[in-house]
What does this fold into?
Amino acid sequence: MWIYLFITVITLLILLVRRKYSFWEQHGVPYIKPLFPFGNIRPAGKRVHSSQLMTRFYREMKGKHPFGGIYFFTNPVALALDLDMIKDVLVRDFQYFHDRGMYFNEKDDPISGHLFNIEGSQWTSLRKKLLPTFSSGKLKMMCPTIITVAERFRECMEKCSAEDPEVEMKDLLARFTTDVIGTCAFGIDCNSLADPEVEFRKMGNKMFEIPPLRIFKFFFISTFQNLARKAHVKSVPEDVSAFFFNVVRETIAYREKSHVQRNDFMNLLMQLKEKGELEGSEEKVGTLTLNEVVAQAFVFFLGGFETSSTTMSYCLYELSLNDDIQERARESVQLAVTKHGGFNYDAVMDMHYLEQCINESLRKYPPGANLVRCVTKDYQVRNSSVVFKKGMGIMVPVYAIHHDAEFYPDPERYDPDRFSPEEAAKRIPFTFMPFGEGPRICIAARFGMMESKIGLAALLMNFRFSRSSKTVVPLVISPRHAVLTPAGGLWLKVEKLCR
It folds into this structure.
C-alpha cells in the first residue's frame, strides 16, 4: 500500500512539474527548455555568470518574439528581447513593474529594507526622501573628501608599484572605494589602503563573494519569498548586519554628543532622521527610523564599494591594451586640471573624454548584467494575447543588449568614441542601461561616476598602465560574484610617470 501511495505522489509531482514547465509553450512563446529542478538556472558547480547565460538565451530567441520564456526553478520568467517591450516594462507601464521582486525581510532582517529592495508606496516615499541627498550641490560638497582619499590612493599605488611593477589592481581599487564610501557614508576613516584587513573590507567582500550554498539560498529566497519570510530567513549574514548596525549607532551617538557636522551621506541621513528635511530645503519629506538609516547607509556602501571598483578595473584594463586611448584620457585629465586651477570638482566635471572611457567600460562590462522586475498586478502585454500574472518575474538582459552588434557594431572592440556627444545624440533609447532606466534608475549614478572619474584621474596623472605577464586576455568573468567581476583579479604593469 505504501508503495502505491509513494508512486501516486511521485506521479502527481511529475504531472505538476510538467504542467508548470508547459506555461510558455501553451502561450505560443519561444522558450529555453528547462531541466528539473533548477529550470534554466545552472546548479552550483556548473555555473557560468548570469551575464553569459542570459546573453546566450537572448541571442537564441531574439527576433522570434518581443520576449522569450525561461524558468527559475519551476516559475516562468519573461526575458525581454525587444526594445519597445523594455520601454513598456521600465517606463511606459511602470505602474505594473515598479518592484524588483527582490527578497527582503524587515521584521527579521531590517538591514535588508533598503531602497534597492523595498516595494510599492514604501519605495516611492523613501526615494522621495533620499533623492535630494544626491543633488549636484550635495555631490560638490562630498568631492573634496573623495579627492583627499584619491591622494592617499596615489601614495599607496606609488609604494606598491615601486615594490613590484606588476600590481593586482582589482584589490587596490576596491580598497580605494571602501575608503571613499566609508568616509562619505559613515564619516569613518577606514584606511583600508594602508590595511587591507580592516573590517569594512571584510564585510564588503563577504556580501559580494557568494559561495555555492549562498547561491542556492539566493535563488530559493528569490523564488519562494513568502515561504522564506515565514521561515524567518535572512538575506544578510548576521555578522554583517550586526557590524553595520553598530557602526551607524556609534557614529550617530558620537556626532550628536560632540555636535559634529560633516559633508557626507551620514550627515544627510541624520538630518532626515531628526527633522524629516535637509538643510536648505523647504520641503518636509518625513523622518527616517534608525533601521531605515542603517539600511540606506548599508546599500550605499554596497553600491559604491563594488560597482565603482569593478568599473575602474575594467576601464584600466582596456586602457592598458590601448595606449593611444590611454594617452587621450590622460590629456583630458591634465587639460581639465590646468584649466580649472587644480584637481577640484569643476575639473572632474570637465573630464569629458575620461567619462567617455568609463561609459564604454560600462557598456562592455555593466556591473548589473540584468535588470529584474516583478509584475505587481495582472498585465496584458501590448499587441499580444499573453497576460503576465501578478508576481511573475521579468528580466531585461542589459549585458546582452550592450553586446548586440545591431546596436554596437563590433561590440567587443573598446571604442570610447561611441560615447562622444555626436554619437550619444544618435543612440537608440534603451541600448545603454548600466545604471538601469526609468523611475528605478540608480539614485546614486552620478556619485558613482564622480567617484570613478576621481580615482582614475588620480592614477592617470601619475602612472602609465600596460599589460603584464599575468594579465589575462580576454578577461574571464567570475561566476562566484553577483556583480560582473574578473576572475582571479586584474594584473597590470604600473610605471610611475616622470613629472
Summary: DSSP finds 19 helices and nine strands in the chain. The longest helix spans residues 290-321. Strands lie at 67-72, 75-80, 166-168, 371-374, 379-380, 387-388, 393-396, 463-467, 491-496.
